[in-house]
Specification:
Length: 114
């Protein structure tokens, strides 16, 4: 076995694909935290902030996944599934955000909360 074969990486994943995948996984945490605040604390300041903090993370995951899909077209790069999953999880955050924001703000909008 020569030195060039030993230094060659086994798998050459695109770095942005990994970043997109990790950010997509992180975006799933924000709605879960919001629901836990709602159930455990019966409201409070944390449930709304946890939703709004997820927006920039989701946008960054979508952008990193899109750029990495353009870069993965090179034959030496892998990670298409990570980029696609990061984009999908980032996009799925926004419907979850809208639904949870409506649920959390509905009592205030319709006069149920004092």
């Amino acid at each position: 076995m020569s030195i060039s074969e030993q230094s060659k990486p086994i798998r050459n994943y695109n770095g942005l694909a990994i970043v997109s995948f990790v950010l997509g996984l992180i975006t799933t945490v924000f709605p879960i935290i919001s629901i836990l605040y709602l159930i455990a604390a019966n409201g409070g300041a944390g449930y709304v902030q946890s939703l709004f903090c997820g927006i920039p993370v989701a946008v960054e995951g979508i952008l990193a996944g899109t750029v990495s899909l353009m870069q993965v077209r090179r034959p030496s790069q892998k990670g298409t599934w990570m980029a696609i999953l990061g984009i999908v999880l980032g996009v799925l955050f926004f419907p979850a955000f809208c639904i949870l924001a409506y649920i959390l703000y509905a009592p205030y909008l319709f006069g149920g909360a004092q």
